[in-house]
Structure formats: structure tokens, C-alpha cells
Design a protein that fits this description.
By secondary structure, the protein is of the alpha/beta class. The chain has helices spanning 48-55, 97-103, 117-129, 145-158, 175-190, 205-208, 225-228, 231-238, 242-246, and strands spanning 10-19, 22-32, 37-41, 63-68, 80-83, 163-167, 194-198, 211-216, 218-224. It has 9 helices and 9 strands. The N and C termini lie far apart (54 Å). The relative contact order is 0.18. Bound molecules: adenosine-5'-diphosphate.
């Protein structure tokens, strides 16, 4: 009997990425199954953001391939939502929180269509979900960093994607916002979504995530947190003892 297997959410084969001929990701092989809430961990400069960008096709690899549910990203654009790093966006343009969230609905509309009542309703619901409904008419530049991060998340939510890529969503947010974000991520996982999150706080990995990828230019290990989040892999990745790392 032939059983058909659904391809994994993300499959990366022999991926090498270089900036100015200097490899920053080296021969990465990675399979990310559908439905995991995965942390990418590794020291500064390990290539974590670059890996996210390579999955999104924002940067061209020197070699190798990335497949999203068995196809190149270009064919799966609507299935992937991206929450960029907070500092990487210029918020000075005059637009409201609601406008930013509504932008997330554009992908599901034809190019001549404008968002209507349905999209507005979905955007307001997403703002409510991230606790930002009261700020819907606030200029985005007049929100705090943590609030902007929540708006980004709401924008990703209305995209109704299958895979969510997030680059340090907890960076510079307060404890309440961090809890709110992780609860939303866990809810999305319950719905069967795949979440790939660049994360730097090693202490919260076992509490927040069920899957982890250790990265330091090379792929060190990837799998269930309960099986591979251990001293050995942490030491291989950070070059220091895990117990020292978590007490920093
Ligand atoms: P991480 O997210 O793990 O901190 P990055 O993916 O941001 O690491 O960066 C990996 C390496 O690539 C670093 O050495 C960084 O300096 C370099 N790098 C990142 N972006 C660029 C770029 N646009 N041009 C040149 N080098 C870059």
C-alpha cells in the first residue's frame, strides 16, 4: 500500500548563505514538521535572522533549497506570515494601528480590491486578541515598542497563514506583553499552525516551546525540546557551559 505523506512545513537542504563571500549559514539541513512551536537559538551573529530571511526568499542562498509544504516559497506566499524584528521597521509614516493591521489582509485580496467591512472586522478582532483594540486609531509612531510588536502580531494574525516566522518577538517587551504573545502563539499551535521564532532567552525555551533548533552558522541540532534541549547541545552552540549560560 502506498501511503502519501504530507510534506513538512519547512524543509531546508544543503543551504549556504554568504554576505560578501563570507558564509553566515553553512550547509544547513533542517526539517520543521507542521504544527510545532519552534525556537531558533544561537549566539549573536549565528545566522538566525538570516535563516528566517532565507526561508522567506528575501535573500538568495549561495547553494541549497528551501521548500514550504513541498514547494518553493514563491508558490506558497499566502501560507507564510512574517513578524520582523522590531527595530527593523521605520514607523515614522503617518498611519494608524488599524491601518497597519489591515495591510495584513491585502495578500488575500485581488490586486484591484480594497479591504472592505469583512477585512476591517477581522482586523478589529485581531487587535482585540492582542489587547490593542483601544489603540486602533493611534498613530503607530506614538505607540511603545511592545505595543508596536503587538500590532505586528495582529497584522500576522489576519493573514491567516499556516506558518508564522517571528524574529525576536519578545525583544524589549514587558512581562505582560510577553505572556500575551506566548499565549497567542500557543493558541495558534493548537489550531495546527507552525511557528518559527528567533528567541534569545534560554531559560524560557522549555516553558514556551516544544521544538528547538540550535544554530551557530552550522545547524547543530533540531528536534523536540524534551529530547535535545540539553547541556551538550547548548555547549556546542554557545561554547560555554549551559548552567553558566542560563544564569547570565
Ligand atoms: P543573528 O540573527 O543570529 O544575530 P544574523 O543572521 O543577523 O545573525 O547575522 C549573521 C551574520 O551575517 C553576522 O555576522 C552579520 O554581521 C552578518 N550579516 C547580516 N546581515 C548582513 C548584511 N546585510 N550584509 C553583510 N553582513 C550581514
Amino acid at each position: 500500500m502506498i501511503t502519501e505523506h504530507k510534506p513538512p512545513a519547512v524543509q531546508i537542504d544543503d543551504l549556504t548563505v554568504a554576505y560578501n563571500y563570507k558564509p553566515v549559514l553553512w550547509d544547513i539541513d533542517l526539517v520543521i514538521p507542521e504544527g510545532v512551536l519552534m525556537a531558533i537559538v544561537g549566539p549573536n551573529g549565528a545566522g538566525k535572522s538570516t535563516l528566517i530571511k532565507a526561508i522567506l526568499g528575501i535573500i538568495q542562498p549561495l547553494a541549497g533549497s528551501v521548500q514550504i509544504f513541498g514547494k518553493p516559497y514563491k508558490k506558497q506566499v499566502g501560507k507564510v506570515a512574517y513578524v520582523p524584528q522590531k527595530g527593523s521597521v521605520d514607523w515614522d509614516f503617518p498611519t494608524t494601528a488599524l491601518d497597519v493591521v489591515m495591510m495584513g489582509t491585502y495578500g488575500s485580496l485581488g490586486w484591484i480590491k480594497r479591504p472592505g467591512q469583512k477585512e476591517k472586522k477581522a482586523s478589529l478582532e485581531a487587535l482585540d486578541k492582542v489587547g490593542m483594540l483601544a489603540f486602533k486609531n493611534r498613530q503607530i509612531s506614538q505607540l511603545s515598542g511592545g505595543q508596536q510588536q503587538r500590532i505586528f502580531l495582529a497584522r500576522a494574525l489576519v493573514q491567516n497563514a499556516s506558518i508564522y516566522l517571528m524574529d525576536e518577538p519578545f525583544q524589549g517587551v514587558d512581562a505582560t506583553t510577553e505572556k500575551a504573545i506566548i499565549n497567542i502563539l500557543k493558541e495558534l499551535r493548537k489550531e495546527g499552525k507552525t511557528l518559527i521564532v528567533v528567541h534569545h532567552d534560554l531559560q524560557t525555551v522549555p516553558e514556551y516551546f516544544d521544538w528547538v533548533t540550535f544554530l551557530n552558522v552550522k545547524g547543530i541540532a533540531s528536534g523536540p525540546v524534551k529530547d535535545i534541549f540539553n547541556d551538550d547541545n547548548l555547549t556546542k552552540t554557545y561554547g560555554i557551559n549551559y548552567k553558566v549560560a542560563v544564569n547570565q
